[in-house]
């Protein structure tokens, strides 16, 4: 998942609170809360539905059960092109899954280390981007709203003129404006939006992300103290070799979060569902 890309659009009309907190203090506090979510996320399995489309092609919808097996995730296909798998296809996917469980249980220490390091590298990139959010933007409280029954602050971030990205992934932040909806009680992020406002080169002259690229992330509680994503949407306008030919969109919906224990993580056994917070 990529909780690593974050977000802006319009906040609508909101009343600015007379006693609004400092924008940077609010972001710093909420990032610490989100870091706690990030640490807990690998302890949960879930169902992910992907909807992907590219210019001049039909959209593709697949659904997966995402399971933590021996220290890294495994995506088990359960629906394809918007349709449930046939009995034969489901059996094939189950056999494929069991073979992978067995392979991971019998891999060499070197193979195991390499596999888990790859997973951790991806997670660490997401974490680094999360930390960069505090450095990349000037934040101001735009107002207050009620979102899904929760009192939230609306926090707007504009790129700092002197911001220098620390890595390639952070480059896109320099061209974005972001908006965070921050729950007043928990400092969690129910909603984040971002939009690229100025072109950002990612690969020198080879490619750039163009204005109009948008991101949306929505989160919800899966326990009394933990929030995880429920919906992510990305619309990309990108240039490669001078031609705008990489336009695409993707959506990911996350449901049925389960807390997993040691046995589940190692064997793929059915986990005990975590109770959703109200």
Short description:
The protein has helices spanning 23-40, 87-106, 109-136, 262-267; strands at residues 44-54, 60-69, 72-80, 83-84, 137-147, 150-159, 176-183, 191-196, 200-201, 207-209, 214-221, 227-236, 238-240, 248-259, 272-273. The chain is α+β, with helices and mostly antiparallel strands.
- C-alpha Rg, in Å? 20 Å
Number of beta strands: 15
Strand-residue proportion: 35-45%
Query: Uncertain spans, ≥5 residues at pLDDT below 50?
Result: 1-18, 263-278
Count of separate structural domains: 1
* Oligomeric state, counting identical vs distinct chains: single chain
The geometry reads as globular
Helix content: 25-40%
Compute the separation of the termini in Å. Answer: 24 Å
* Mean of pLDDT: 83
Order of helices and strands: HEEEEHHEEEEEEEEEEHE
Tags for this model:
single chain; 278 residues; twelve-stranded antiparallel β-sheet; three-stranded antiparallel β-sheet; 4 helices; 15 strands
What would your notes on this structure say?
By secondary structure, the chain is an alpha+beta fold. The chain has one domain (23-273). 26% of the residues lie in helices and 38% in strands. It is built from 4 helices and 15 strands. The protein has helices spanning 23-40, 87-106, 109-136, 262-267, and strands spanning 44-54, 60-69, 72-80, 83-84, 137-147, 150-159, 176-183, 191-196, 200-201, 207-209, 214-221, 227-236, 238-240, 248-259, 272-273. The strands form 2 sheets. Strands 1, 2, 3, 4, 5, 6, 7, 8, 11, 12, 14 and 15 form a 12-stranded antiparallel sheet that branches. The chain is globular, with a radius of gyration of 20 Å. Residues 1-18 and 263-278 have low confidence and may be disordered.
